[in-house]
TrEMBL record:
Residues 28-285 form the Glycosyl-hydrolase 97 N-terminal domain. Residues 555-651 form the Glycosyl-hydrolase 97 C-terminal oligomerisation domain. This is Glycoside hydrolase family 97 protein. It holds the Pfam family GH97_C. Gene3D superfamilies: 2.70.98.10, Aldolase class I (3.20.20.70), Golgi alpha-mannosidase II (2.60.40.1180).
Amino acid sequence: MNKMDRLRVGLLLLFLCPFLVVAKEVKLASPNKVLHAEVSIDEHVSIRVLQNKDVLFAVRNIYLNTDQGYIPEKSSKVRSVKTKAVDRMVVPEIKEKRSVIAERYNELSFLFADKTKLEIRLYDEGMAYRMLTNRKGELTIFDEAADFVFAPSSTVFFQQDSNMNSDYEAPYVEQKIQDIKQGVTGNYPALVKIPSGTNILLLESDLQDYPCLWLEKGSQNLNAHFWNYPKTYNVNGNSKNRRQIVACEDYIAKTSGKRTFPWRVFAVAQEDKDLMDNQLVYLLAPECQIEDPSWIKPGWVTFDWWARRGLYNVDFKAGINTATAKYMIDFAADFGIRYFLFDDGWTYKEDLTKTIAGLDMKEVVDYATSKGVDVMLWVTYDLFDNQMDAALAQFSEWGIKGLKIDFINRSDQEASNFYWKAAKKAAEYKMVLDFHGAYRPDGLRRAYPNVLTREALVEFEQNGGTYKDNPDNRLMLPFIRNVAGPMDYIPGTMNNATKGSFRFNHDTPMGQGTRAHFMAMAVIAESPMQMLPDPQSDYYREAECTKFLVDIPVEWDDLVTLDSKIGDYVAMARRNGNSWYVAAVTDWTSREMKLELSFLPKGKKYKMEVFRDGINADIRAIDYKHEFIEVEGGEILNVSLAPGGGWVAKISTL
């Protein structure tokens, strides 16, 4: 009897023998037979994951600590184990990476004596597990336990943070597990590179009515960590900090006793570049809850946050007023940009239904509509949550098409419920959303694809007063943060600086890197909603770059990841229709890269439009070269990147 036959017999016995204690490991293989999971149930559930015969990691002591005891119960007995195999194609509502996603996995489902279920899925791209409870009434959860066991010399990349009111904008810290001090906490996603070089990215999906999963360093391992439910708030603050937590309850969640819990996701990639193509968070999320989502329109955004402080060559006083808004809308119309966003400052005091003096919102929106531009508004979590119904009714009357919701700065159960409520209510009014001061994506965008993007990263804004958005941190984002879902990085600045010339300027931030670098980031930073940071006057001045930049699509039919290394350099090719966009960026180290056009039919000729670092880009970061070249499929391109440099091209048929 071979190994598979023994496994089939073992599973058959589990079906036939109720309340049989699982004394030995139950095994599961990924569809391609490379990843393997070994599940053992002793006092608590543990899962060990292998790549071929090599152990990658283990998750030990999986359980919920509740007011009804441990779930599953200690040393729990198993009623049955079922298996399932799925092989299908998924068509996403919004094409973030590609127009069709292959979903293939094998699943084990354990039913325990206390009616708890544990589902474990193995994809070729990783492992995920979740619990399902079947209890009457409400369940109070004090904690969810899980120990994530990696080799102590493994390296972790994650945002270390000890603040339950976090803005999720910390840079990534790279540190060996054995060197992290006990008690240090940080949020997801977290990337672990084990000694063999294999990457395991920790994520979660289908987060509903529950707090976000964080990490805490235990005496040896990384452990699950959650922020407790809030008890009191900073009630004397303003709308940006009034919802910050002062004190907490002794539980993390009160929730229905009959429910599914979030998926705990472990993306696995042998090569760094393969992380960028992982879609497990999306695949494990609930399917679309909007009956007809055809009204949802991804696109580029121009906004007034920095722009109103930096306009020139205009005949009006720039500010938050009707004249400034119309000028910015004209710019959007001139370059085919879909959205104009009013950022902070447009409301009268704290009333979302009224505007400040000098701003006629209805006039602005009507003007934008006549120009084919949609208008979005910035709101805070506190004000919007308190005024949601009245605000949305007024926004709809004005003709508003989207919202940027800011300063959530929490990841507890109450805050996570707000995301779902906001997405659902906004969808009822056919409005798209961008969350800022937000935790990482968790699958909400599949259920509500009107959630186009969110922050949860060090983005361009940080250049106004910090060095955080440097190329070293920026080049970790595609492998970590962007794998969880779209990120509102805000690429495309024309105010470019070398490492030596960079200076803080809050009103007109500079970008740390070359012109070509920031144009390439519009391809690399994945988001169905991309924002332009600079004053519109700058983009008019740099019209050659602007036209190419805003013509870069925000939806994609295909993705090919090229030679890339976490934190050092990134290269990829994305297809939209018949056109390919190829981009490469580097950290502060200059590089010579070879980009093979293997994704094009060999020998077929194409035209290529290129923006690359100019010969003096290492001295003046604004220096670039714009050229048109004929290339062939299969050709290898030699690309030179300046320190903090970049290269971006559009390839089209002749």
